[in-house]
Records
---
Amino acid sequence: MQAQLIANDIACRRGERLLFKGLSLGCAPGDALQVTGSNGVGKSSLIRILAGLLKPFSGEVSTTGAMGLIDETLALDANQPLGKALAFWERIDGCRDPSRALEVLQLEELLDVPVRFLSTGQKKRAAFARLLNRNCPIWLLDEPLNGLDTQAQKSVESLVALHCSGGGIAVVASHQAMALPDAETLAIEDFAA
Ligand SMILES: Nc1ncnc2c1ncn2[C@@H]1O[C@H](COP(=O)(O)OP(=O)(O)OP(=O)(O)O)[C@@H](O)[C@H]1O
């Protein structure tokens, strides 16, 4: 079955504040969607709603296909060397070719470094390695360029573009516009409550 991500008439409330309402979107294989907006407008909240981690105040999300999320939390054991921390998930995710992600994200030389000692950008690259290894069709990326240097930003942009050109879906929440061919833009301000 083909991957799909649909959100219908979503409203989001955080605390006592209604952040946005009437937000709908639909993504099919090959689609890239950039979610834009100023600080605090609700970009991360929308990503969490799409991921099923936050209940919308109203509206519905439906998905077909597995989702992978990258946000500020790194789901790798901080006390393990990077190689072992990634290998734990490679076994669970049934990854057949972990070396590809290590090469693409230039992580080979960091495999013996405990995850907690990695720099911000190195951690972000490690998160992308795990995402690649999962081989899931729907990518939800919250500020994926944060902490990355120019070269790593370009690598990530290429990875996301490649994912979409191969039939994947990417929803990207970011202050910085990503160079993604044919990406649609969703400005959360347009749905401000
Ligand atoms: N658990 C919470 N309880 C109450 N308010 C919250 C909670 N989490 C976030 N908020 C508020 O919701 C608003 C939207 O937060 P969110 O992180 O979604 O914004 P954002 O657009 O991603 O911001 P940024 O660009 O700074 O990352 C903010 O005003 C924030 O303070």
Note: Residues 29-43+66-184 form a domain with the Rossmann fold fold (CATH 3.40.50.300).
---
Amino acid sequence: MPTPASPFKLGTRGSPLALVQANMVRAALMAAHGWDDGAIEIVTVKTTGDLVQDRALSELGGKALWTKELDRALDDRSIDFAVHSMKDVETVRPEAIAIAAMLPRADVRDRLIGADSIAALPQGARIGTSSPRRGAQLLRARPDLEIVLFRGNVDTRLGKLARGEAEATLLAAAGLERLERPDIGTPIPIETMLPAPSQGAVGIECLAERGDVHALIAAIDHAPTSHCVRAERALLERLGADCRAPVAALAIFDGEAIRLRAEIIAMDGSLSESGEIRIAPGDHAPVTALAETLLDRAAPPLRALFAG
Ligand SMILES: NCc1[nH]cc(CCC(=O)O)c1CC(=O)O
């Protein structure tokens, strides 16, 4: 297809990781459609999540912290599509917006930075994270650890670690790889730390009504990633959970079926429920049933985390 006469506008947050991911999408679209450099212009948009750095996201209350401003730009057509870390995209999206494609998923694991393993952390060590899931999984393995609030982009968090605000921190391997820092820290096996739903996946959204734009984006969809991430998001949806809830889930496509493992866990790590199913891509009824089973089995203090 010839390069379009006026460039498409690709919206993204302005963090270093977001810009790398936006450029990955731009390159994939150019390659798929044979476009030259002028075809796609990158437009950065500041989101609420970027502006508020000093509080836990859970305190901010509102949802859509990373998406609202990009949604608005899609809506007023100042951008044609938006690129997101799927992990930061709230479960229930506005009806007008479609997830048109996902890039192939990166390493889904978390990396521990500051020690060689969870077992090697000093007694009572402070671990910087703002993720309820990571905090809960760490405390389950090591109740003696102290969780301290770390927010901000990858470099901000590494800076806090370097200044001694904690003995260790956890970051997604995917982000470190994309920022060309794959050698920082040690990956934690998923058996110890099942990742967040959608971790490692990059998605591209557009207005559902723009069928032409949707088709151009869908051409670069990596179907196994899409199916897996959509299954993980279906679990979150039935749990009534978002990125602030202590939920871990990982779907893996083995060529025939999707194996979905899921876990809900109390903030202090003292209570958890987990389960695993095999499903056909797109068949979300068993995912809903798994979510209900986890909630049914959960002791009241754990179930209460999902009341809302
Ligand atoms: N919540 C922030 C966020 N959103 C996506 C990533 C990393 C990339 C990914 O998981 O796809 C990160 C940083 C982190 O969790 O270390």
Note: Residues 16-33 form the longest helix (18 residues).
---
Amino acid sequence: MTNYCFLLRHPSRYSCIRVNTLKSSTDAVMHKLMDLVCENGLSDGINGVEIVEQNGGDQPHEQSSLVQKCPYAGLENVLFVQGSGPHVLNYNSQPDQSVKEVIVSRKCAESVLRGAQVFVPGVLACSSHVEKGDKVAVSVAVEQPVKDGGWAVGITRGTVLQGLQSDVHYEERKGLYIGQGTAAMSRSGIFRVLHGIAVEMTERVYKLPSFNDVLEGEIFLQNLPSVVAARVLDPQPGERILDMCAAPGGKTTAIGILMRDKGEVVALDRSHNKVMDILKLASEMDLNCIKAYKLDALKSVRKTEEATIVEMVNSHCEAIKTLAEDSGPCHVTVDGTATNVNEESSTTTVVQFVDDKNPEPKRYVSKAELRKNLRRMKNGPGRNNCFGGRVEKSKGFFPNSFDRVLLDAPCSALGLRPRLFAGEETLESLKTHAKYQRRMFDQAVKLVRPGGVIVYST
Ligand SMILES: C[S@@+](CC[C@H](N)C(=O)[O-])C[C@H]1O[C@@H](n2cnc3c(N)ncnc32)[C@H](O)[C@@H]1O
């Protein structure tokens, strides 16, 4: 019988790559990837894989067996890069010497198994006397059950490994080696600096090419179901789409590309740094249709009564903008008057906003709102639209604001491979999770226009 948990611990046998067809073509990327795979010697050790180049294309290249086009209609922008493993490695080439070692966190190991190098933040422990250039065996620390019923890794960052059987961590890492590599810095460097490559992997138990810094903006490493989710949403150029839990922006950018960068994709995430990630990815992919905001998706629906007020503020701002464009910078007072100051000529114009149904000037516009709008007018779109570290917060959206909504609610991530550890879910935690997802779905239902589409991906 197939052991499902055992399979989850192994990486997928291929990497799935989505091509940014606004910047390149699938064929061009395919050839670049073949060269990369060739350079990295990834063809070694891949046995028994039946290869067919799908959808026609060029005659099979020597390395074409390792890079294949996705055979399914509608997914012509998807390529698969074949991996291999498990390979048996010899960690102890000099039997009289103890092996120098590095233990990495589970998340780091999962990335390494998918082709990444070992980066500094992922290192938990290291043998003493490791110097730059030393060969080190890399193993993973997986959560272990603890007395109070929870799970813990049990290794403090910076631990010195003795490399002996008497070492307290010896038993723990038996069978959990993921390869070996060359230390890119000394032990002290690894625990002193904040980022950078700690170990360059040279031999891996599972070989998959690393796509770090490769064809940036032209490709995105994405699991096939995620590519399919964006495809099923079927976004059309010119539409307004909402992606409710969007970071790092894999599906958001897939949607933007399907829309050929025409229209608007509103991407939400509750984490500031993750919104930055979305903006960075959109910029790398040259997508202008993506607007990313920090917002808790559970609060993404704005009350309809606010709509009238906002409409009024918007029309006021529009009037101010016209004024500013015509005559230069202006100041606005809270009683609804805008004073246009032409700094060069020192002329002043005063505009009074009047509600058609109520001729009395209203104090609808808050000082902060007006100051913000004025700053935007004077300084352009503002720092939020570049990567200065600030992200725009959203107050939410009015009902029926979007043609289509993608809800990629946070999930158990059980479908992600490799998964070296899966804590046990209790019935109670599953129920809480389901309730959370349901509340998000209710927001999605309100935000989509009548006849619009919601794709709920989990
Ligand atoms: C599964 S990931 C989304 C992956 C993304 N759709 C993609 O394809 O790249 C879930 C994301 O939802 C975000 N998230 C979780 N709860 C949220 C909430 N209440 N509001 C907004 N974002 C939330 C997390 O910060 C995380 O970035």
Note: The chain is about 30% helix and 25% strand.
---
Amino acid sequence: MTSRIRVSAVSYTNTKPFIYGLQHNPIQNQIDLSLDTPSDCAQKLIDNKVDIGLIPVAAILNLPYWQIVSDYCIGAIGAVNSVFIFSNCPIEEANIIQLDPESRSSNNLAKVLLKNYWKVNPQQIINAADYAKSIDIKTAFVQIGDRTFGKKNQFPYVYDLAETWQKLTGLPFVFAAWIANKPINPEFMKAFNTALKAGLDARENVLAELPSYAGFDLRDYLYHKLDFNLTDDKKEALNRFLEYIKEL
Ligand SMILES: C=C(O[C@@H]1C=C(C(=O)O)C=C[C@H]1O)C(=O)O
């Protein structure tokens, strides 16, 4: 028997439809699936501990070989509602931006937007000891994923980074895509893609299994805020984003 393809996927709610699709499909017998934070998905693919990852697209720049293996992604057209800068002062007045240790794409997106949209240059800190807890009014923070659910009303200044990216470029955004670090058998890729699509088509079942979060509309999130199709304009956005990162 040939060995299983090792796959790392994001452990957040945004990926639950994909996980559902993979786990309700015969392809589950061909893969070893692990669920990780986005930054760990990226590191595992870079370190060749997995063959395919739903990796933050910013990490593509750290891969000597990479190949997109699916028509689906974690993306958004306008506001995504789970990737924010939370701040106690207007962003233009912040002295420090704490980055999210679980993120690669959104930390870079924040840097790109600070430079090119808000045109400011606050100090940027990763792994801050008081991450997301600072009481300094001039300290803001980037946060992604389920930890942001319901937090939008807790801060006086809240910036949705996919929405701000759209204001800067007119484009949608891709946070994470299914990327391989080696050539993958086309038959497998086709079956993998089919399983992911089946998961998206089963979002009602996924919603029925999920807990509810106070102050957060999960149905709206999975159907309308996230956009899972890796369309040509999202690929254009991906390339544009990588160019912006290189210029930081
Ligand atoms: C929309 C999101 O997209 C994500 C953000 C990522 C990042 O910032 O590196 C990576 C994967 C996705 O989980 C989110 O996590 O809320």
Note: The pocket of ISJ is lined by residues 10, 12, 14, 38, 56, 74, 80, 82-83, 103-106, 144-145, 175-176 (CB under 6 Å).
